[in-house]
Design a protein that fits this description.
It is a single chain. The chain is α/β, with parallel strands linked by helices.
């Protein structure tokens, strides 16, 4: 079979579980990853035969994709903030709304004048996409990233090394307040914590629930805001004066999360993502009234 024939067969089989546009996007991604050919190059060479090793790889990838495995896990790559990150099933696949959170931090930082080195901590770092992107965008900062999973930290360390970002990684269970003692004080706290109540698991897509790590997605139904409460508590002793907290939130619970930070004495700003959903919160440590 020619390259064009194999591609068409691949795409057509994907349409059994994806719409036509998504099937084509995934097919283009897989073929470029395997063959090294851009979309236009593949079309110019569509009458050529694929190398046998490439053909076998594509066949294996198709089998995985038809089981609803996300293409990012199949290829072990995900694009985030204009950079390619390594991912596997021990970390969440980076999302566009998290890119917006990173952009908010970088934009705010560049508007302000800082006379001293700024310290940032990322809580629940996963793939390391947040701290790596922040370090590349704000090289003058000092960044610490923590996660409870040693397997996730292996991924984040790999990404930091490959993308040449100097970050201090620590394994820590953030929900255990005793472990806060190993952490310093920071000008910025950032986190995309688990925030989906377990009772919403049934409405999520199969490629999310079957493959992405539940520990990074879900929280107990009886305390869905536990991470935000802990972050607010942590900030009381670990956020420097005039420091800021940036968090990603569930689109339906932004106001509730905002109230948690307000009750802890923070000034709160809720920000919509590009789709108009309330997905980000910035909390600023209020200056004491003299």
């Amino acid at each position: 079979m020619t390259t064009g024939e194999i591609y068409n067969d691949f795409r057509n089989k994907l349409t059994t579980i994806y719409d036509n546009r998504e099937a084509e996007n995934i097919s283009d991604w897989v073929f470029e990853n395997v063959t090294g050919l851009k979309k236009w190059e593949r079309r110019e060479n569509q009458n050529n035969k694929l190398a046998e090793t490439d053909s076998e790889k594509i066949k294996t990838h198709l089998q995985e994709l038809l089981k609803h495995k996300p293409v990012q896990y199949v290829l072990h790559e995900a694009w985030f903030y204009r950079r390619k990150f390594y991912v596997n099933e021990n970390v969440l696949i980076p999302r566009p709304e998290t890119e917006e959170l990173v952009e908010w931090i970088i934009s705010d930082f560049k508007k302000e004048k800082h006379s001293k080195r700024i310290n940032i901590i990322d809580i629940g770092t996963g793939s390391g996409c947040i701290p790596v992107s922040l370090k590349k965008g704000l090289p003058e900062t000092s960044i610490t990233a923590i996660d409870v999973s040693d397997k996730a930290l292996s991924v984040s360390k790999k990404n930091a090394k490959e993308l040449d970002a100097t970050i201090d990684f620590l394994e820590a269970d953030f929900l255990n307040e005793n472990e806060w003692k190993m952490l310093s004080q920071y000008n910025i706290i950032v986190s995309n914590p688990p925030y989906i109540p377990l009772n919403e698991k049934q409405v999520l897509a199969k490629n999310v629930t079957d493959f992405e790590p539940g520990i990074a997605l879900f929280v107990e139904n009886n305390d869905p805001f536990i991470f935000y409460k802990k972050i607010a508590g942590f900030a009381k002793s670990h956020l420097k004066e005039s420091g800021k907290i940036y968090v990603e939130v569930h689109e339906e619970y932004a106001k509730e999360v905002g109230r948690i930070f307000e009750s802890a004495g923070f000034l709160v700003e809720i920000k919509n993502d590009i789709y108009g959903k309330q997905r980000m919160i910035k909390s600023t440590k209020a200056m004491p009234i003299l």
